[in-house]
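During the no-cost extension, the postdoctoral fellow (Dr. R.K.) reprocessed legacy sequence entries with the updated structure-token encoder. One reprocessed record is reproduced below for audit purposes.
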Amino acid sequence: AYNIAGVITRNRRLISGVGLPYFWCFKAPRYYLLVVLLLLHAALPAVVQSSPSQSKDLLADAETAWAFVVRMTEPATGLCASTAFYDPVYPSTYHGLTMWDLGSLYFSILHAHRLGLIDDDTFLKRLQPVLAGTKAVKAAGLLLMPQEISTNRLGHYTPGFNPCDNGRLLSALHWIDRYPLSAGLARELVASWELQEAVQDG
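Re-encoded structure tokens follow.
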């Protein structure tokens, strides 16, 4: 038998830091994970409503963040660099995109639409090339997403498999798949990966 309260105490920071998919795959026995989630949910503080002025400031922050995505998206791939250094003399852009970064890109497109920063057509036009660029490769004999992909050269990638980063990517694709405007678009993509074989006791 497991001490659920002890599990929560020991793993709360891990769960919040690396995300539930990683915890599920590599730390938590599957048959008591649901209990842990329910207890964690009960322990969360109530949602605090933002004031009108706070909401305005948050929306302005979102607009700034989306402006970065628009500016840094590569026309040839539809992928956005996660890191850029704006310097008038020596500007630089890092074109390696981790799976964590890729998950963030999916979330940015999703929430830009939810916040009304982009319309339906723009949402789909932004999403489709990102889905097309989310291509698995062979890692340790399994078809999985690599360590990094290139934002400016389709098909170029860094070999390896990062379970933590892939957990965030899977979380993003889960919400893309549940969103009404993109419902089902990610399902076949994820189903083509050999995740079952990569999960302990999967």
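The beta strands are 83-85, 92-94, 96-98, 137-139, 142-144, 148-150, 157-158. Confidence is low (pLDDT under 50) at residues 17-32. The remaining legacy entries will be reprocessed before the final report is submitted.
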